[in-house]
Design brief:
This protein is mainly beta. The protein is 2% helix and 60% strand. The strands form three sheets. Strands 2, 4, 5, 6, 7, 8, 9, 10, 11, 12, 13, 14 and 15 form a 13-stranded antiparallel sheet that branches.
């Protein structure tokens, strides 16, 4: 079921189809959107592209996320902060017609993001073995300014998951997700100051590029945390991302080393998202229960473009077994699981 891509090459052939489908541990295929052939018009092809860089920093006390995205018709730039002590949330989104100012790099391995709108500045910088996140957002919440400067460590030997997935004919999803990047720096919101330390804060990246079907559905689950012995543990689980017959993105990480997983079902009740979710793989290497304690609902409606997301934050409990046979007990690992519907 799992086809691993091991050689470099272009992502799309000259007819706009994926040259290879499967997963890899590094970004090996070169994203080349100029080869998209949905219509003879490059402009219309560009309107079908969906691109985003989504960063998320998790501690046991708070969650912070910032995104720059270009989804063809519009750009969406947003950030949100969740305090796990009182389950409070602050969020702000900016909508940009035709994605003006949302220029994103062609690779997750190189290239920077610089978004500017007046005094609002967001920078995602890629340097040797690290990433830098900078946010200066005046009047983020009421009169409070959001400021963040985070240094995110990405050692060259840190495993990650990349998937190249077809979605019907001529459609595709190319995605790179990285968990458990140790993080240092600070976040301030108004008079509140928060520190991120590499022994308590971990950042993940969701780098997505693709052309999707107009009606879209997916599930995504992720977590990054620490075991009692200080080792990092992370997981990435997904469903609904196109034709997954060649490979899924399901995996978990122990101290930066991936264990790739086979089949997995998201077992949850969409009538009650707070009901515990179950995740069990067919080969028995992962058996987890996710118990939500906070919901971040997000609805967006521009007529032709609509999204609805129920992102649940909670604790993962259970066990995982590595390829080497080590079984790890997972207790109260903070993470999220979500259901996403879109017309886009």
């Amino acid at each position: 079921m799992q086809r691993e891509i091991t050689a470099h090459g272009p992502l799309l052939d000259e007819r706009g189809n994926l040259r290879e489908r499967g997963y890899s541990r590094l970004m090996l295929l070169d994203y080349n959107p100029e080869n998209i052939r949905l219509t003879p018009s490059r402009l219309l092809n560009r309107l079908r592209l969906k691109e985003w860089d989504y960063y998320a920093t998790t501690t046991r006390d708070f969650f912070f996320s910032v995104t720059v995205s270009h989804v063809g018709y519009i750009g969406l730039v947003f950030a949100y902060f969740i305090d796990f002590h009182d389950n409070s949330q602050v969020e702000r989104t900016i909508v940009l017609p035709l994605g003006r100012g949302c220029e994103l790099p062609r690779s997750s391995a190189t290239g920077d993001v610089h978004f500017r709108r007046g005094n609002l500045h967001i920078d995602f910088l890629r340097e040797a073995e690290r990433r830098i996140i900078k946010v200066d957002w005046p009047r983020f919440h009421k009169r409070d300014m959001l400021r963040a400067e985070l240094e995110v460590s990405q050692p060259s030997d840190l495993d990650s998951i990349v998937i190249a997935t077809p979605i019907g004919k001529h459609l595709f999803y190319y995605n790179h997700k990285i968990n458990c990047m140790k993080t240092s720096g600070h976040i301030s919101l108004g008079s509140r100051e928060l520190d991120a330390r590499p022994d308590t804060a971990l950042t993940s990246l969701d780098w997505g590029r693709g052309v999707w079907a107009y009606r879209t559905f997916w599930n995504w689950a992720s977590a990054s945390g620490f075991l009692p012995d200080g080792r990092t543990i992370g997981l990435n689980l997904g469903a609904g991302f196109g034709d997954l017959s060649a490979a899924t993105e399901n995996c978990f990480y122990l101290n930066g080393k991936m264990t790739k997983l086979e089949g997995l079902k998201f077992d949850y009740d969409s009538r009650d998202y707070f009901h515990p979710w179950r995740f069990v793989t067919s080969e028995g290497q992962l058996d987890l229960t996710f118990t939500p304690f906070f919901e971040r609902p997000s609805k967006f409606n521009l007529g032709v473009l609509r999204t609805e997301v129920h992102q649940m934050f909670g604790h993962y409990d259970g066990q995982v077994t590595t390829d080497s046979g080590e079984t790890i007990r997972v207790d109260r690992l903070v993470g999220w699981a979500e259901e996403h519907h879109a017309l886009w």
